[in-house]
Amino acid sequence: MRDLLGRVRAAAEQYEMIDAGDRIAVGVSGGKDSLYLLYALAMMRRFYPKRYEVVALTADPCFGGGETDYGAVEALCRQWDIEYRIRRTNLGKIIFEDRKEENPCSLCARMRRGILHDMAKDAGCGKIALGHHYDDAVQTFLMNLLYGGKIGCFSPKSYLSRKDLYLIRPLVFCEEADIRRAVRRLALPVVKSGCPADGVTARQDTAELIQNLEQSFPDLKQKLMGAMQRAGIDGWG
Hints:
This protein is an alpha/beta fold. Helix content is 47%, strand content 14%. Strands 3-2-1-4-6-5 form a 6-stranded mixed beta sheet, with helices on both faces.
């Protein structure tokens, strides 16, 4: 558990994600990654050399036309002395009913991020943290190559000039399997996604491809991450 938290701190320090006096918004979907991110940033306040605040934000897509119950997340925020804000949206209706998107994930992610960015500014935050982890980074690199024919990935830290907001990803040194184990040990209240496309996405296909390739090419994820860092792709240097 300490090792995983240490990796969060290492990412924050290597990519200069946290400054003294920061008010950091954490995008909380209710999934395991965002809940562990919230836990990690909450716990790090106790010992990180630069003092900062945390605000938890949820943009509920309201899949199926119903509001998602985030009561357990709200209780967790009270326990950890974190302000919690939730905004109900009609994302589910727009994407799956109005537009009937065949590949909904990209559009949904962009629209949800836009809502979270606005919520972060409304909450007086200068930075927003998202729960993308080590596996997400490697998968994104491969997806850009295989589906888009380009070399690239999201950045560990980036500046959104239109919003005057920094986007940080403190879990980029944390592997998904380790996060999953930590969430079980901590008994964090994961909120089941109501998304109709959950588990049937290009990202899931890419994750399975990597798993299969690692049978012939051991440590493939580590090699791809190392290649991104050595090449300095999209701020990974």
